[in-house]
Amino acid sequence: MGTALDVRVKRAGKVYRDGEILSGVVVITSKDTVQHQGISLTMEGSVNLQLSAKNVGVFEAFCNTAKPIQIISSTIEMVKPGKLPSGKTEIPFEFPLQMKGNKVLYETYHGVFVNIQYTLRCDMRRSLLAKDLTKTCEFIVHSLSQKEKLLPSPVDFTITPETLQNVKERASLPKFLIRGHLNSTNCVITQPLSGELVVESAEAAVKSIELQLVRVETCGCAEGYARDATEIQNIQIADGDVCRGLPIPIHMVFPRLFTCPTLETTNFKVEFEVNIVVLLHDDHLITENFPLKLCRM
Amino acid sequence: SYFLRHARSRNYVSESEVCKLESVPLDFGDYHPLKPITVTESKTKKMNRKGSTSSTSSSSSSSLLDPLSSVLDGTDPLSLFAAAADPVTAAPPTDGARRKRDKDEGSAVGSDFEPWSSKRGEILARYTTTEKLSINLYMGSEKGKTTTTGSAVSEKVRTRLEELDDLEEGSQKELLNLTQQDYMNRIEELNQSLKDAWSSDQKVKALKIVIQCSKLLSDTTVIQFYPSKFVLITDILDTFGKLVYERILSMCVDNGVSLPDNFSPESVNDTAKETCLNWFFKIASIRELIPRFYVEAAILKCNKFLSKTGISECLPRLTSMIRGIGDPLVAVYARAYLCRVGMEVAPQLKESLNKNFFDFLLTFKQIHGDTVQNQLVVQCVEIPLYLTLYSPAIDWILQCIAYHAPDVLLTEMMERCKKLGNNALLLNSVMSAFRAEFIAARSMDFIGMIKECDESGFPKHLLFRSLGLNLALADPPENDRLQILNEAWKVITKLKNPQDYINCAEVWVEYTCRHFTKREVNTVLADVIKHMTPDRAFEDAYPQLQSIIQKVITYIYDFALLFSVEKFLPFLDMFQKESVRVEVCKCIMESFIKHQQESTKDPVILNALLHVCKTMHDSVNALTLEDEKRMLAALINGFIKMVSFGRDFEQQLSFYVEARSMFCNLEPVLVQLIHSVNQLAMETRRVMKGNHSRKTAAFVRACVAFCFITIPSLSSIFTRLNLYLHSGQVALANQCLSQADAFFKAAVSLVPEVPKMISIDGKMRPSDAFLLEFLCNFFSTLLVVPDHPEQGVLFLVRGLLNVIQDYTWEDNSDDKVRIYTNVLHLLSAMAQETFIYHVDKVDSNDALYGGDSKFLAEINKLSETVVSQILDHLKTLGKEETLRRQSQLALYFFNTILAHGDLRNNRLNQLSVNLWNLAQKHGFADTKTMVKTLEYIKRRSKQPDMSHCSELALRLPLQSRT
């Protein structure tokens, strides 16, 4: 490779917030001098909505919103056409992350049907003989803190055969009593989900207890919408036949990028839920669902 | 023979007056080459590996430092290598360095904390299996799941999280039917591939390997191997933790300056922090509980990069996380690992340690629950065996808790255990982990608890063994001691299984020896014999029996007392396998030599030890290594030297005779015996003040005869020669003239057999230097040996000269001529009216012949022959390549003439001038030497009767160097 192009943002974590200034350098390394037709840098933020397979047929008929929604976009010309010396050239840049009017900068989120992504793209245009060079670099946006939204909302729960819905043969169920609590269903995204769970009694041996983090993505417009729930991660908190009566900690760290503060817009929604899944040795699966509200502090 | 030689007549008394060195009082404080090497102060301590010189203090007069032993003092490079190379006992070599660095951090544990590394070998050796094992590195099952659920998921969006779960894209590896050794090899391979992946920058692959390995810890099939599996896999985790920590640490290097050991999180740069955070996020998303726990625990130390309180927040969380592990065995080992990491990273955080133990107590009832019991039935594992699997983990947790803990805490722990039905398993761990002093002080309580405790399958003899181990280290209260022994032994003696019995007894023997008399020791030994004899049970218990013997002789080293323990010898009889028997004998003899201060004639000791020595001796065969033989011989010699019957010389001699017949296969012992007998003869002479009575004369002759018949059985020729000479001298000193003659004749006739090369320390070396040395020594003795009345004049000297003449010397060596020159010294000494020395009460030739002219003529004739031989030889050296030798030899001969010849004789005078010139002729003479020689001659000429020397000096030109 003759010429290498690289975009580096200043912060190690690449995390920026609304109102801050995104700064960094474009680095060009080459053994020889570089002839070019100008170097430009583009910052873009967009929401990509994808249509789930099961809905696509119906949905397309109504609406045509599958194209990306732009949140922010700006381009600057960094270097006018000319020559760059051989060796390493660093060109600093700065972008203010400023939204106009009432608009907000959504937080970066990588989901299945909804993707919110921010990128920096550097283009070096070159003469006809050489190919244009492009380098893309993702940076991450965190939304501003939402203090007013956070109210602790502890939940106590009890699971017995009687509390279950969707049971085919209630009689064949083994007896069990599982109690516990979540410290709050309103969660700060940087803090783990926490709580406790006690298997007070269970006729059948416990095989596993898991926390299933689920995202619920809704895409749609006035004409209709599609709502899909998919698993983000599954964290086992108990393995094997745990001791009865002994509280087991519920603890789950929210993964970065794959979670964001609960988001509701006119076009799409991103929500989260957690399932407590108890798997018994006779392959009975008991699930208890808790909707969560995530926010950033 | 154109030349007559004249010996200069000497007056030895006056000469010695003149020549005697001025006596200088020795200052003992000064340097002496044999004193121990002392280094008063070394600037830095970093040299401590090179053991030989660094360790001594400045007190030079104290015990002699043996440079060899100090080299062997733990730091010898071989054992270091061995320790590092041994894959079982050694953690990765850098581990030591890391541990050292940790120690420097001040907060770390001290050296009085028994480290994990010393436990792991023990665990690996103890928990083994012959059953087939399997490794199931099943990657990709997760993946199958995700692809089915989310068919719409595009490749692009595939998360890195999901990637974590498969090692190689979709690979599933299940290795079945592995033997234990295979299994260990596989794990080692994984350890290696972890390091490889890491060094080739495949961090994600490294993490996958670690996750897959820690998953293996949730598998409890072949449960009896679980503790060993734990050891193997946590090694990998340790490696991983170290790699991650060091990687992040290396990212903190700023302008070539690395972080200090006790850095604060503020000084860590953002990139390092981000990387560290990334690791924690990745680990937090591991699906399964057990790998998530282990991997996070492995990198616990990395919390230091993020915040000051990180570790103290993590530890309690990880502790309660273990509650989710259903299998009690898996859980307790997880706790042990957490305690281990905790002790290493933050030993000051005691709370979590206690919490771990209390949580364990809370889940204790699970052990007897259905899930576990069913599992045991399936695996055909008995409860007692199952319970012992817990011991290493509980021991370790308790050891961490007990480290520097106040007694109050220990008492509380004890009470808690008691509340749980006084469980045997817990009690045992308490005894293994808590301070020995703590246990010993409460011995009677413990005995009570052991008796009462709910056995629930845990073998009681193990409890007594643990208690015994504590009592070997710390003393219980004086008043309880006998009762403790009685109570314990009452139980021990009832054990049916010989292995259980001996494991217990072995420990309690030490306690018995420590606090009680030989009567109790005897009883204990008798009991052991009684238990171990049926069905030859001792055959399976040699190590334990050996350790019993060792303990007994450590405490009872008065051998009179030891052998009065009636059962001691019968106990020895249980060692029927020869190699073990010899080992035991060696121990006994080592102890004897170390502790016996005075020589002994106690028949009990002698009999017993002769028996012991005989056993050692009889083990020698054609295959025995030289070193082994040397060691055995040294031990036997040590014993022989300690035997003394005082004035009963006859008895002493018969002891030596008996010893000779017993130890005939070990030459060094025979040599020692000859020396001892010679010494005995000289001792007799000393007692009789040189005047032997008829009886003592006969005794001395018996001693001489002993030596005479023993020497030929030795194989080393120089040993024989020297012993002949030595014994001849002793015989002469004891007026056994014909015997002395016989020795010397034997020596003379042995000289032709001396080979040109001899083996020294396994290497072939020329023997000439040894022969030269021996012959010179021999000549000095021959001076005082009187001629045999029936043999010719100077019979022995002639004989020796003939032998020298006929001996095939090395082709281009001057040894023969050097010897001849030395013979001239002898002959000139013989020509004196009074010899320079005599043997008391033996008339030498000077007295026998009284300066008879015929005798002198004989001497002259001999001298003449010898001189002509020398001159002939000098002539043959006239060739170009031998001129240097000719010069040296000429000067040597010149010096001899100067010292011994009568230079007033003209021909001799002329000869010396010729030799002087010859020495200088070809320019090989050392000018300095020549000048000094000349100065000497001039100085001597000033002495009375030596005026002729000045004339000589004038005739000796000095060759000037061109």
From TrEMBL, chain A:
Keyword Cell membrane set for record: no
Gene3D superfamilies linked to this entry: 2.60.40.640
Matches recorded under Pfam families: Vps26
Annotated GO biological process: intracellular protein transport
Signal peptide feature range: none
A single GO cellular-component term on record: endosome
Keywords, alphabetical: Endosome
Transmembrane residue ranges: none
Family: Belongs to the VPS26 family.
Quaternary state and interactors: Component of the commander complex that is essential for endosomal recycling of transmembrane cargos; the commander complex is composed of the CCC subcomplex and the retriever subcomplex. Component of the heterotrimeric retriever complex consisting of VPS26C, VPS29 and VPS35L; within the complex interacts with VPS35L. Interacts with SNX17 (via C-terminus); the interaction is direct and associates SNX17 with the retriever complex. Interacts with SNX31; the interaction is direct.
Functional summary from the UniProt entry: Component of the commander complex that is essential for endosomal recycling of transmembrane cargos; the commander complex is composed of the CCC subcomplex and the retriever subcomplex. Component of the retriever complex, which is a heterotrimeric complex related to retromer cargo-selective complex (CSC) and essential for retromer-independent retrieval and recycling of numerous cargos such as integrin alpha-5/beta-1 (ITGA5:ITGB1). The recruitment of the retriever complex to the endosomal membrane involves CCC and WASH complexes.
Stated name of the protein: Vacuolar protein sorting-associated protein 26C
Species the sequence originates in: Aegithalos caudatus (Long-tailed tit)
UniProtKB/TrEMBL annotation, chain B:
Keyword Lipoprotein: no
UniProt keyword annotations, A-Z: Coiled coil, Endosome, Protein transport, Transport
Family: Belongs to the VPS35L family.
Subcellular location: Endosome
InterPro entries tied to this protein: VPS35L (IPR029705)
Coiled-coil stretches: 161-193
Species the sequence originates in: Aegithalos caudatus (Long-tailed tit)
Ranges annotated as biased composition (Low complexity): 52-68, 84-95
Name assigned to this protein: VPS35 endosomal protein-sorting factor-like
Region described as Disordered: spans on this chain: 38-68, 84-114
Main location: other
